[in-house]
Amino acid sequence: MTPSPTPLSRRSLLGFGIGTAAAGLLAGCAVPGSTNVNRAALVPAAARGETVQITYWGWLKDLQKVCDVWNASHPHIQVTANWIPGGIAGGYQKMYSALAAGGGPDIGQVELRQIPEFMLANGLVDLARYGAKEHEAKYDEAAWAQVEFVDGVYGIPQDTGPMGFYYQTAILEQAGGEPPTTWDEWKVLADKVRKTGKRNFLEVFPVADASPFAAYAQQAGARWFKVDGDEWVVDLTDDATMRVADFFDGCIDDGLVDTSASAYTPGWYAACADGRIAAVTSASWGDALIESIQGSKGKWKVAPMQKWDASGFGSSAIGGSSAAVLANAKHPAEALEFITWMTTSKEGVDAMIKYCGIGWSPAKDYIGAQREQPSEWFSGQNYNEEVFAPAAKEQNIDWSWSPVTQSAFTSLQDQFRRKITGKLKLSDAVELAQAEIVQSFKEKGLSVRTAR
């Protein structure tokens, strides 16, 4: 499916008639300043024989070990990794503060869903100016779609999160069910699992985390944010999103899902270990977390994510980061050379998996040597090649994020909680959240309207 062109320039981000001062409306963030580095002259590459030093801020563990692999064979471009807290846990604030002071690293780890907010603050280098588009064919289409905006490239995909259906084989056998191929089959299976015990559930539906709901809507064909000329269009009440809301409204009302905990929380781990949670629809990076379930080795397998329609999108995505070149980078050309090596070469991808445990590799033709092998923990299944390699290519590439992603998630979560505390319908919760999201756009000085 080919996405329609979406004009998402700096001017579009700010909205008609709004100048760069509007970046000052970034909630809780220091502003890099009014200078747009992408209108300035290109930073020249280092002279031949000159050694440059590049800094990389990220929260991946052992990132320096990946840099060391590069450094050993590239003596003239040396990369130093500095650990920072996860993005919303303080890492982004640290980046914004450094940018505002005229400093910061050459490279920063920026989640895919946060790129538009960094763009709004003039925080990122347009890597298309340094030849990034020459590398586009090396990446999965869905991953690249999250970093390219009109004629610019504002990061390089570092890892992604295509989704599948993880399940405990014995529990499904006990319930007399098979891994579902559609969400309707999933609901039938959820009912079967519930009948095996009053505390047993197929899955959880987390009201305190909007990421899964957003992923389900994305798979259903939703497109929450787009730009029409110089105006943002917000559409959380489209047919696809309402279909997902109504579906899970019914599941909650029928007692088919556990709403008491999110996946990968202590309560969830305990329930899985006790056989009270049978499955989780989650991203590729969930495998490492599932392996932490006590006494569960050999009890789990992975199937493709269930579809909303037989001909619909085969998967969706949760999470994913970019390696973005920040506005005050002293060596953007060399930084681009390093991060494309890190994310597409066999040496780089293997090092990122071995040392950092990254999510899904964004490289189109290489998933990593470690992920080409069957997994003893997952019942001897070669699930990465069977499930996640196809899933990475079966996503809704028309989906895009906005400069208010974090506040949008907060609004959804606040309203979803009212499903439990006040019996609010999820469809009504989405409508109420949309009104708050529109207000968030306005508070940033952005031109905005709803689609309907």
From TrEMBL:
Statement: the UniProt record of this protein carries the keyword Cell membrane: yes
Name of one Pfam family that matches: SBP_bac_1
Lineage per the UniProt record: Bacteria, Bacillati, Actinomycetota, Actinomycetes, Micrococcales
InterPro entries membership: Bact_solute-bd_prot1, SBP, TAT_signal
Keywords from the named record: Cell membrane, Lipoprotein, Membrane, Palmitate, Signal
SUPFAM superfamilies reported in the protein's UniProt record: Periplasmic binding protein-like II (SSF53850)
Listed name of the protein: Extracellular solute-binding protein
